């Protein structure tokens, strides 16, 4: 899928259209930017893609908008589209990690997000911004990320063929192939603008099983708080169901321990190989 030699987090232009068609994502960002960006503000967007969020910032009345994009073809598409809209945006072709921000930034928009904080470099890019920016504290959009994990029994059989492959799910759709064995548990939450950013995404969580079955996967749940003020705008991302290397049979009442650790930006296989589940206190034994 990726061009030879390209970094793994490259998103070709055809996938940007998919992001533009994602109504939950687009609606949340449009609403949040309209609430946060006030006339006269200086906005910096890191990872501009096609430039749509920079456009929303212009519409909200920002007095300056800088949009940084690393991929040449995507940068060119953004430059052309913003130009065609007559939007006064400075589009910069650069790696956001090496970009020196202007002296004053009121709002940092950064959507380099993937469920689980996997694959994309949100944390690294925001961290690089924070270490090179000395001006008054900006507002980050999104302002926070909250992550949860849930033990599930997943049907991985397709047309009679069984293969345990990670899969994405629309959280607003019914998922008849997934049986939740316990409610989700939050393992991480942090604000982008406050203190230190996480260097790992790690969980060591105990669940009381509500429904017995074969525990063969976990569902990763990532919710981003785009803004808190004046009213919260949240973006719940598509779920990611990740198969367990070693499925375990569980009964209602069992306590199950699920653990993993990976770094933000790691690939899905790195989470897969770090995943571990064990039954701590079998209900059937007691
Ligand atoms: C998930 S897309 C979001 C695009 C756009 N902001 C939107 O909301 O439609 C993330 C974008 O960040 C870009 N990107 C990834 N890493 C980058 C980096 N280190 N510096 C600059 N851009 C980067 C990708 O090429 C991609 O266009």
From TrEMBL:
SUPFAM superfamilies tied to this protein: S-adenosyl-L-methionine-dependent methyltransferases (SSF53335)
GO process terms (BP): methylation
Organism: Catenuloplanes nepalensis
GO molecular function: methyltransferase activity
Protein name in the entry: RNA methylase
UniProt keyword list: Methyltransferase, Transferase
Domain Methyltransferase: 43-115
Gene3D superfamilies in UniProt: Vaccinia Virus protein VP39 (3.40.50.150)
Top-level taxon of the source organism: Bacteria
Chain ranges passing through the membrane: none
InterPro entries registered for this protein in UniProt: Arg_MeTrfase (IPR025799), Methyltransf_25 (IPR041698), SAM-dependent_MTases_sf (IPR029063)
